[in-house]
Amino acid sequence: MSGLFGLGGLLSDLPANGLGRLPQQPTLGLSLLGGMVAKPTRVYPCFELYIDDRGSWRWRFLASNYKIIADSGEGYNNFDDAKHGIALLQGAANAPSYIGKD
Q1: Per-residue pLDDT tens over the stretch 35-51
Q2: Domain DUF1508: where (predicted)?
């Protein structure tokens, strides 16, 4: 899964409920040899997948200032469906923009 949506290591950094602070610097973890090693940091902007309080998968898009600027708007029962929602948004990157309702 690493690299598919820029999520390498991202899911393992999330608490069980999918909420928590956004890491702004490397976090430390234990190596197999008992020493401390730095985990890779996230690259921003990025998509973040997480599990909400109801156990559904959701995604959000984080800007380079770590602020959420887009979210899935709904929960998904399956991880692959949430990834598909991200892919749809990525595919619409060149979509036209309009002002107001027409």
Answers
A1: 555 556 778 999 999 99
A2: 53-93
Say if residues 61 and 45 touch (Cβ distance below 8 Å).
yes
Using alpha carbons only, what angle is made at residue 88 by residues 102 and 74, rounded to the nearest 5 degrees? 80
pTM for this predicted structure: 0.59
48 vs 18: CA distance, rounded Å: 10
Burial category of 93 from C-beta neighbours within 10 Å (exposed 0-12, middle 13-18, buried 19 and up): exposed
Please check whether residue 41 lies inside any domain of the structure.
Answer: yes
Cα torsion 13, 15, 20, 21 to 10°: value is -30
Joined tokens for residue 35: 């020493």
**Contact, 31 vs 38, CB < 8 A?**
no
